[in-house]
Amino acid sequence: MKIVSLLPSATEIVCALGLGDRLVGVTHECDFPPAVQQLPKVTRTLIPGDASSREIDRLVRRRLETQRALYTLDLPALEALAPDLIVTQALCEVCAVAEDEVQAAARALPGRPAVVNLEPRTLSEMLAAIRQVAGAASVEAKAEKLISDLQSRIDAVAARTAGIARRPRVALLEWLDPLFSCGHWSPELVRLAGGVEGFGQEGQPSRTVDWAELIAWQPEVVVAACCGLAVERTLTDLPLLTSRPGWREVSAASSGRLYVVDGSHYFSRPGPRLVDSLEVLAHALHPDVHPLPAGLPDPRRAEHALAASPRSG
Q1: Phi and psi at residue 309, in whole multiples of 5°?
Q2: Model pLDDT for residues 215-260, shown as the tens digit of each residue
Q3: Which of 63, 88, 119 is the last residue of a domain?
Q4: Domain extent at residue 88
Q5: What is the pTM of this model?
Q6: CATH of the domain at 245
Q7: Does residue 113 lie within any of the structural domains?
Q8: Residue 293 resides in a domain
Q9: 186 inside domain
Q10: Predicted confidence (pLDDT) per residue in 28-79, tens digit
Q11: Residues in CB range of 240: below 8 A, 6 or more apart
Q12: Residues 92 and 167 in one domain
C-alpha cells in the first residue's frame, strides 16, 4: 500500500503505526519524524513566507469568506505517486487542502485511492483517528498497542493532577495578533494538566479574545502556543502581547509565568504528540507535581520579553 499524507499530524500517525516505509508523499509542512522531509511534497502554501501574524490572520479570514483553503495540491506530483490511500482532514477549513479538492483529485486518479478524513476535536477523538488510519491500512493490532500506551500516559497525568488542590487560572493562546483562545483539544489539555482555562471550550473551535477579556480574567499563567509557529517565531511576536497597556498588571506578568511552547510541532497537531503537549503543559503549570519526561522540550519562560515590556501609565 502506498500512502500520501496531506497534513503533518496524519504523517505522524502513519509513522507511529510503523507505516513510514509506505509513505510516498507528504505536505510541505511535514517534518516529523525527520526522515519524512526527504519525501516528495504534494502541497504548497498560498501564505507568503514573510507574512506577519496580522497579515496571516487577514488571509485566513478572507479565505473563510470565499470558502477556499490556504493550501493547494500539486496534482501532477500526486498523480505520479499513484497512492492507494490518502489521509487528509476536514476539521479546519483553511489549514490544509480543501476536502472537495482532495475528493476531486482522488476521483481523477487511476485506481481511485481511498480517502480517510480525520476530524479529531478532543484527545479521545485523536486516539480514534489513530484507529481510523490503522483500519484503512489493515494494521489494527498496532493501533491498539499505540493507543494503550498513549492512554496510559494521559491517565498518569490525570492521576497526578487529581491530588492538586490549587489550580491556576490559565490563558492558553493560539495566536497573538489578534489574540485567539485555544480550541478543540487544548482546553482539555489545560484541565488535565491542572489548570483552569479562561477562554477556550473543550471540543469547540478557537475564538478571538478581546484584550479586556484577558485583563478581566487575570490569568496566573499565560502560555503562547501559536498555531503552526515554532518557538523562535512566537518569541518575535511576544511584544504584541507584552507591550499592550495593562499587561504588567496581569497576574502572569507580575509572577513571570509567561511561557512559550512549540505550537507547530506539538499543540497544533492532533496526533500522538498531543500527549507530549499535555506533559509539557502539566510541567509548566505544576513542575513539582508533573516531571518533564526525558526528550521533551522544557516550556520556555519569557522573562526577557517581560523585562523589555513597558509598564502601562
Answers
A1: -80, 135
A2: 999 999 999 999 888 899 899 999 999 999 999 999 999 999 999 9
A3: 119
A4: 3-119
A5: 0.90
A6: 3.40.50.1980
A7: yes
A8: yes
A9: yes
A10: 999 999 999 999 999 887 666 677 878 777 777 776 666 566 678 888 999 9
A11: 53, 176, 177
A12: no
For cell 504534494, the residue is 42
CA dist., res. 162 & res. 194, Å (int): 8
Residue 259 grid cell: 511561557
The phi and psi torsions of 32 (rounded to 5 degrees) equal -145, 135
Q: Per the structure, how many domains does the chain have?
A: 2
Each residue's pLDDT tens digit, 177-225: 999 999 999 999 999 999 999 999 999 999 999 999 999 999 999 999 9
**Last-in-domain residue among 89, 119, 149:** 119
